[in-house]
Design goal:
6 strands, alpha/beta, about 10% strand, six-stranded mixed sheet, about 325 residues, Rossmann fold
Length: about 325
């Protein structure tokens, strides 16, 4: 039997040190993924003034926190302005965000607009208010961005939001459309960015717990979440539980569309397609079964994904949950 000092080094590390190491790895992963998304899609450029939309939820807190870290080390200069829309929902703790942002030393603006009363007046009792509320909120934030001279509007949607939206559109809308990491606003006046596009929701949950953000619940209006979105979210979580890496694979697929192998005639000239006698390595082998990879793609150089996959496989081998 080994003496205590003969135990492997990993067994001698204290639980506190392990937590500190895992937290450090998480911080590095968040900064790397957000930085990679910003570079991949040219989300932020020199001289930009970015309006960071802050709701009081874990995602927007995490987005602001990581953007501040990147701003401090970025080779270019850009400004951040945190903006919250106080919609006068009953019980909304109006002092939480101003106190937090003042202590943080971040420039911020609180926009007070009673959209709650408008929505309650227009939407029948028992019906979901989210759609109208979202449209009103969007219009107000666009106006505020113009008034503040902001060149970009940053929203806190993460990888799981993007995938859920893609499947919602596919299942219920009949369109292959997701939630882009960068787009022009519907009024044509603003550029909207999603710096968390590569970030998994579970990492934002862990980071919020570590940072102890003063979370404001999103159910103050009394409206239920979109049940279809909840169902799709559960489906995605179950997929990831059974097949670690699947969600990263799907996100990778959204970045590598092959129009010639889809069915959208506006993206590929199927009508004009003719055999030209030229062999192509990427040509379709129509009578062969498509060979699929046996392991998940690990996008964005995320070694942690491989580590998580290995951990789950070990647990499964030992009969764990």
């Amino acid at each position: 039997m080994n003496a205590p000092n003969d135990l492997p080094l990993s067994s001698q590390i204290s639980p506190r040190l392990k937590i500190e190491r895992e937290t450090h790895k998480l911080e590095k992963r968040l900064c790397r993924q957000v930085g990679q998304a910003i570079m991949d899609y040219q989300m932020i450029e020199a001289g930009d003034r970015v309006m960071v939309c802050l709701s009081g939820g874990k995602d927007s807190y995490g987005m602001l926190d990581v953007l501040l870290k990147l701003q401090a080390r970025a080779p270019i200069s850009f400004e951040l302005v945190a903006v919250n829309l106080d919609q006068k929902q009953p019980g909304f703790p109006a002092e939480v965000l101003p106190n937090y942002l003042t202590e943080l030393g971040v420039r911020f603006h609180i926009e007070n607009q009673d959209t709650y009363s408008i929505v309650k007046d227009k939407i029948p009792e028992g019906k979901t208010m989210c759609s109208l509320c979202s449209r009103l909120r969007r219009g107000i934030l666009y106006r505020v961005a113009g008034e503040l001279g902001c060149t970009k509007i940053a929203l806190g949607h993460h990888r799981d939001d993007i995938l859920a939206t893609t499947f919602l559109n596919l299942f219920f809308g009949g369109t292959l459309k997701g939630m882009p990491p960068k787009l022009q606003s519907d009024d044509g006046q603003h550029v909207v960015i999603r710096p968390l596009a590569y970030v998994a929701e579970r990492d934002l949950v862990r980071w919020a717990q570590h940072k102890q953000f003063p979370i404001i619940p999103c159910t103050l209006c009394g409206s239920q979440d979109n049940l279809q979105r909840v169902q799709v979210g559960k489906m995605l979580k179950e997929w990831e539980r059974q097949h670690p890496g699947r969600l990263d694979n799907i996100l990778h697929g959204l970045q590598h569309a092959v129009p010639s192998h889809l069915m959208d005639r506006s993206l590929f000239d199927f009508a004009g397609l003719r055999a030209d006698g030229v062999a192509r390595a990427d040509g379709d082998k129509a009578f062969d079964d498509h060979e699929l990879p046996t392991s998940p793609v690990m996008p964005f150089g995320d070694a942690s994904a491989a580590e998580r996959l290995a951990q789950v496989q070990v647990v499964q081998l030992h009969g764990g949950d």
